């Protein structure tokens, strides 16, 4: 204390000195807890998916009148998807909040926000990891199927995809194909129908060629073959439209279940964080 100041005056000057807040060097995100919670959430989600798939397979039956209907199976699948997402995300979020470090000198509102953000991050990391795993598994299965087809059907696997239709058009002949090439004829007919669906209308040349092929193979007249083609195209379009609607509904329910999982992880993280702060050292 300076000798020319009274003790009271010195204390008042020290008290009037403005306090400058110091920013903490540590981040508000506890990445260790986030990654740990995400791993747990992803593992539990995959386990529950496997369990749900087992239940679904045990509930269906190839015999008429046995097992659940398609509507009941769809409803059960949606319900299980919600349950799996909420349970897995909730447990992952709770562990994220419980395992994070204790923040000192932080307002309660900021602690609540950080816990919510950490839980949301754990859910996001778990979602990305699960999507990557499922995509890799699907790609491996698809690649293995393509390799097996290339070995068993080398001629059919030589050209595939939309360009196969144009290759077929190059080698069309007015002579009917031999009887022992029935599989080749059926594959070409499938590509012609697929091209007609993509263009929303089958070109006249394709209609005439396919009608002639059907008539030669089945023994019916060309007019009857054209009528059969029209009926089949209508059925294919109806099936495609039904598949589109089913896929759209499934994706919408998946979106809602993922939102429920994000909410569950965030709330569970705040609960775990609150319990973490209530723990006192012995």
What secondary-structure arrangement, pairings included, does this model have?
Blueprint: H1 7-16, H2 31-59, H3 70-99, H4 108-152, H5 154-158, H6 163-170, H7 182-198, H8 204-218, H9 222-278
Helix pairs in contact: 2-3, 2-4, 3-4, 3-9, 4-9, 8-9
Short characterization:
The protein is mainly alpha-helical and about 280 residues long. The protein has 9 helices and no strands.
Task: Summarize the structure in words.
The structure is a single chain. This protein has two domains: 31-152 and 253-278, no CATH class; 154-245. It has helices at 7-16, 31-59, 70-99, 108-152, 154-158, 163-170, 182-198, 204-218, 222-278. It has 282 residues and is an all-alpha fold. It is elongated and about 90 Å long. The two termini are 41 Å apart. Residues 5-19 and 155-159 have low confidence and may be disordered. Helix content is 77%, strand content 0%.
Please outline the major beta sheet: none
Task: Give me the Rg, rounded.
Answer: 33 Å
- Please tally the helical runs, counting DSSP H or I stretches of 4 or more residues: 9
Ends apart, CA distance between termini:
41 Å
Mean pLDDT: 80
Give the helix proportion (percent range): over 70%
Unreliable segments of 5+ consecutive residues = 5-19, 155-159
Sequence of secondary-structure elements: HHHHHHHHH
Tell me, briefly, the overall form: elongated
Number of domains: 2
Please give the number of β-strands.
Answer: 0
β-strand amount: under 5%
Class based on secondary structure composition and strand pairing:
mainly alpha
């Amino acid at each position: 204390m300076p000798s020319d100041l009274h003790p009271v005056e010195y204390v008042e000057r020290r008290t009037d000195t403005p306090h400058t807040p110091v920013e903490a060097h540590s981040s508000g995100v506890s990445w260790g807890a986030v990654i740990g919670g995400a791993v747990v959430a992803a593992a539990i989600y995959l386990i529950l998916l496997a369990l749900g798939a087992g239940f679904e397979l045990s509930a269906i039956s190839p015999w008429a009148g046995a097992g659940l209907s398609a509507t009941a199976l769809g409803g059960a699948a949606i319900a299980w998807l919600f349950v799996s997402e909420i349970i897995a995300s909730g447990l992952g979020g709770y562990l994220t909040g419980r395992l994070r470090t204790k923040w000192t000198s932080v307002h309660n509102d900021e602690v609540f926000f950080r816990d919510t953000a950490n839980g949301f991050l754990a859910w996001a990391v778990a979602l990305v990891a699960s999507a990557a795993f499922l995509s890799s598994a699907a790609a491996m299965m698809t690649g293995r199927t393509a390799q097996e087809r290339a070995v068993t059907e080398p001629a059919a696997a030589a050209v595939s995809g939309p360009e196969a239709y144009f290759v077929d058009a190059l080698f069309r002949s007015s002579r009917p194909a031999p009887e022992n090439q029935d599989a080749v004829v059926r594959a070409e007919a499938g590509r012609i129908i697929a091209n007609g669906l993509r263009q929303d209308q089958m070109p006249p040349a394709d209609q005439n060629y396919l009608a002639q092929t059907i008539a030669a193979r089945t023994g019916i007249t060309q007019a009857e073959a054209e009528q059969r083609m029209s009926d089949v195209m209508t059925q294919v379009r109806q099936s495609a439209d039904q598949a589109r609607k089913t896929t759209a509904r499934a994706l919408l329910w998946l979106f809602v279940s993922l939102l429920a999982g994000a909410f569950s992880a965030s709330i569970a993280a705040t609960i775990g964080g609150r319990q973490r702060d209530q723990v006192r050292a012995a």
